[in-house]
């Protein structure tokens, strides 16, 4: 029975290119993990904590500039012409330019008025919009490649960015003793270079048509603006714990917590790679709008959810043996956080399986409400659980908030786009 289901998915080309997506995702998103032996050797927990805070800032700025605009490409890719998609890409760049200028202006005012930048040099605050701008351009290119089923080129872009980032980081920290700024330079330079190459590739392949279309711009804002609170809520859940630990316990403890977090986030290497294949496959089946396609999605969803839970447990077991090998003794206490973070991101992976229903029907405003609610739960749980259990309480709060987000989005998505979640079981 299970074998037949797997064969059916294979015939539907579901797993086509998955190995490449997985490989490139592992290589690209494993950078923080791969750098752990170097960063924990050459940076003190305090310096590692400052780096973690800067990465928090990057994550915080991204939703305001990017607004998840690449979703406008995917939702139209299988139902519109190539010319239409090429116009969308250009008009996304128009909107992206507007949001970048707005955010840069707000940051400038904030700094002029003496806003706190957590001991991070002002020059790195101004680098945030640049990274967000070029990062979204790369995301648009990767979205087109993924939907066009070109995993080899997709992997080439991902791995090239990783090579540049990793090489610069190691060179600047190990050879030139740049401290945490060496890591920041690696992220900035690699993002700018790959963003530039992404623009060139989209232009060369006819996916960038210079034509301002007010109706498309309005549609981009309509779909993407509601995703700001959604993405921001996700950022709060992903990085707010480190800010709270920094304030309640200290920067050094926050650095140790971040190491444990990196091990737990190994879970996202698989879930992200899987989602690169899942998204286009799911949207294509949803466009068919028939009972057979819906049943295929439902059965695959159940199988994948179970797999995510098993994977989180395996990651925790492996981390028990791997963490002492990859880090110095002062970071070994980070293991206690791994199981909670891994399970939390397993539920986040499940959430990504049900997230597309709202995007498919063009209704995304509820996502902001759900994610912000989860963020408030996360903040409250952080304060309570950190006080009760110490820094591990932050990891426990992560699991609670992602569980809430998955269950709520699953329930509401089914109201927007009913699916036979339980009907097929009785057949």
Highlighted features:
427 residues; mainly alpha; 2 domains; 19 helices
Describe, in plain words, how this protein is organized in 3D.
- The protein has 427 residues and is mainly α.
- It has two domains: 1-19 and 226-427, no CATH class; 35-221, no CATH class.
- The chain is 81% helix and 0% strand.
- The protein contains 19 helices and no strands.
- The protein has helices spanning 2-11, 18-29, 31-34, 36-42, 45-66, 71-77, 82-112, 122-147, 151-175, 180-204, 214-224, 227-248, 251-264, 266-288, 291-326, 338-354, 356-360, 365-389, 392-416.
- Helix 2 runs parallel beside helix 9, helix 5 runs parallel beside helix 10 (180-204) and helix 14 (266-288) runs parallel beside helix 16.
- The two termini are 14 Å apart.
- The mean pLDDT is 84.
Q: Figure out the total of helices.
A: 19
Average pLDDT level: 84
The total number of structural domains is 2
> Strand-and-helix sequence, N→C?
HHHHHHHHHHHHHHHHHHH
Spans where pLDDT lies below 50 across 5 or more residues = none
Proportion in helices: over 70%
- Beta strands, count: 0
Outline of this structure?
This protein has 427 residues and is an all-alpha fold. The chain contains 19 helices and no strands.
Q: What is this structure's SSE topology?
A:
Layout: H1 2-11, H2 18-29, H3 31-34, H4 36-42, H5 45-66, H6 71-77, H7 82-112, H8 122-147, H9 151-175, H10 180-204, H11 214-224, H12 227-248, H13 251-264, H14 266-288, H15 291-326, H16 338-354, H17 356-360, H18 365-389, H19 392-416
């Amino acid at each position: 029975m299970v074998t037949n289901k797997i064969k059916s998915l294979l015939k539907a080309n579901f797993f086509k290119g998955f190995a490449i997506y997985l490989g490139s995702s592992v290589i690209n998103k494993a950078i923080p993990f791969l750098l752990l032996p170097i960063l924990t050797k050459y940076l003190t927990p305090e310096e590692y904590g400052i780096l973690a805070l800067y990465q928090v800032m990057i994550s915080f700025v991204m939703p305001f500039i990017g607004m998840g605009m690449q979703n406008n490409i995917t939702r139209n890719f299988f139902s519109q012409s190539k010319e239409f998609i090429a116009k969308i890409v250009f008009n996304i760049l128009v909107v992206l330019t507007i949001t970048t200028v707005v955010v840069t202006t707000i940051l400038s005012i904030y700094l002029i008025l003496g806003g706190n930048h957590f001991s991070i040099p002002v020059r790195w605050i101004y680098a945030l919009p640049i990274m967000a701008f070029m990062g979204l351009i790369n995301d648009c290119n990767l979205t087109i490649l993924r939907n066009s089923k070109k995993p080899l080129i997709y992997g080439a872009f991902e791995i090239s960015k990783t090579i540049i980032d990793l090489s610069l980081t190691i060179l600047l920290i190990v050879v030139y003793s740049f401290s945490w700024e060496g890591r920041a330079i690696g992220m900035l330079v690699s993002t700018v270079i790959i963003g530039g190459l992404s623009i060139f590739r989209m232009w060369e392949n006819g996916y960038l048509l210079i034509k301002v279309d007010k109706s498309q711009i309005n549609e981009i804002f309509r779909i993407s603006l509601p995703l700001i609170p959604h993405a921001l809520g996700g950022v709060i859940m992903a990085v707010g714990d480190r800010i709270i630990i920094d304030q309640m316990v200290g920067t050094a403890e926050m650095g140790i917590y971040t190491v444990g977090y990196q091990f737990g986030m190994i879970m996202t290497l698989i879930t992200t790679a899987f989602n690169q294949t899942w998204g286009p496959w799911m949207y294509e089946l949803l466009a068919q709008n028939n009972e057979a396609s819906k049943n295929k999605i439902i059965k695959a969803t159940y199988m994948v959810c179970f797999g995510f839970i098993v994977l989180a447990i395996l990651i925790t077991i492996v981390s028990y043996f791997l963490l002492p090998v990859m880090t110095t003794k002062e970071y070994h206490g980070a293991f206690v956080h791994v199981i909670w973070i891994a399970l939390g991101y397993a539920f986040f992976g499940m959430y990504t399986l049900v997230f597309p229903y709202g995007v498919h029907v063009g209704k995304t405003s509820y996502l902001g409400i759900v994610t912000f609610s989860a963020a408030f739960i996360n903040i409250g749980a952080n304060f309570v659980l950190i006080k009760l259990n110490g820094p591990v309480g932050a990891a426990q709060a992560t699991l609670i908030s992602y569980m809430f987000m998955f269950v709520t989005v699953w329930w509401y998505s089914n109201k927007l786009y009913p699916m036979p979640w339980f009907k097929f079981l009785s057949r």
